[in-house]
Amino acid sequence: MTPTEYEYLRKFLKDNSGLDLSADKQYLIESRLLPLARKAGLSGIPELVQKLQSGSRALITDVVEAMTTNETFFFRDKVPFDHFRDTIVPEIIKARAGRRSVRIWCAAGSTGQEPYSLAMCLKEMGAALTGWRVEIIATDLSQEVLEKAKAGIYSQFEVQRGLPIQMLVKYFKQTGETWQINPELRAMIQHRQLNLLHDFAQLGTFDVIFCRNVLIYFDQETKINIFNRLARQIEPDGFLVLGAAETVVGLTDTFRPIPDRRGLYKPNDPRAAAAKPALAGVAPRMAVMAGR
């Protein structure tokens, strides 16, 4: 792969997924795209670049999916789910007692472990949410991982990563060497393909947004743009949950951190961002890379 071809792929990935690769990540592209090129019957990455330049839509999708990260597991990092159980849901129950409904968005749903973990948290609350309408929207850039999430079928290795044994027994059915989450929990999740670089206003507003381990892949301007648009989709008293390595501090005033609650944020004025012009150089398209 020549320097020119690498620069083309860097720009291609940033434009189509938001992935911002540094100049020293050529090895990463080679390790992920060379097998894809061979599977497509191409001689190597130079021919793959030629095909991309010719506008092959199927190959564009395959390249983006091959380069995005789909690392996830049940109750990943634990702390956000403690916040969800101990802080977020109790406050939502009080604030939404009149309408008895809650909307949650997992903006990097990946293969489903995060949204299903949230669904299990809600089920464990039992009577507190009886009669409530619960919507969990899980989005991801990759259609392939969404299909796995919809099926809710996981290997023994996957269910052993972060999932308490009592929840495995309670919410999953074993078939051979795999485990499938029960139909009731699968029915709680709506899976939709979405690129965060694109408009997501059509999703409506949410009480809670989980957007974890996604923004670390974006440059600063793209992060700011996404934060400002997330602010328009969250209720004034809603909650934003970010990954441990992510923060709004120094990037935007649309959200503020909650003291002593790492990764948890509240909107300052979620409608204010609507009046702000897009930053120069930031496309009005925005990527959910998988989850992370």
From TrEMBL:
Coiled coil: none annotated. Keywords: Methyltransferase, S-adenosyl-L-methionine, Transferase. S-adenosyl-L-methionine binds at N70, T72, R76, E114, D140, N195, L196, R212, N213. It holds the Pfam family CheR. It comes from the Bacteria. The keyword Lipid metabolism does not apply. Methylation of the membrane-bound methyl-accepting chemotaxis proteins (MCP) to form gamma-glutamyl methyl ester residues in MCP. InterPro entries: Bact_Chemotaxis_MeTrfase, Chemotaxis_MeTrfase_CheR, CheR_C, CheR_MeTrfase, CheR_N, CheR_N_sf, SAM-dependent_MTases_sf. It catalyses: L-glutamyl-[protein] + S-adenosyl-L-methionine = [protein]-L-glutamate 5-O-methyl ester + S-adenosyl-L-homocysteine. This is Chemotaxis protein methyltransferase. It comes from Bradyrhizobium niftali.
